[in-house]
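Same chain as my last thread, 233 residues:
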Amino acid sequence: MSDKMRWRYDDTNPVVAAVDAATVIEIGDLVYQEIDDVRPASSQDDLGSETANQEMFSDKFLGVAMQRSQAGETAPVRVATIGVFEFDCPSGKFELGDLIGADENGASNALLSQQVAKVNNSRYAIGRVARREGSDATSVLVAIRSTVMTGGVKGSSPSGAKQEDAQSSLLRKLEACLPIIPLLVEKLEAVADAAIALLCYQTDCGYFAAINNLRYALTEAGYDMKPKGNPVA
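reply #2:
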């Protein structure tokens, strides 16, 4: 597709990205970062399905190209990492906040660089709808969020769905620990009691008995009381 200024309003927080000589970028392209250079969505390898392609693109999404780069050119280009842009889309209705991802071509073997579609999972998203469309529309305003620069749409990968999965996993682990907390407190109280008793003994006999009690309490609390390294002479 030819150059088309798709920016409508809001700050864009642009970055300057490197471009390989063989890469062609048009103004308005959805672009992703591939290691150390930026490429249009249509350049991404086909992963076999639309959702797989959308998820990979979301993971690497840099933003929207604000400058072109023709074949043979190597000058870096400016890329918007946030802001509201108007993109072509398959005809449909849109509600505020609907998740939006890159659309796939008719042959189902590559993404389109300047067309978006509604997606049903945040891991495929590159933005959210910024203006409601109550009647069928063929263009939609999208508030984009660069995954590379901002962490992406909340809930999109890698900062969103995967991050939320990690948070859920942590919560499950913490919940699993709750039943053993009273037992742990009990064992630590025993350690504290033994330590206090140790401080109170003055005779050698009482001292060594208290030492043994402390060692036992620490072992019961889960501490390895086996000697480490070589004994001191």
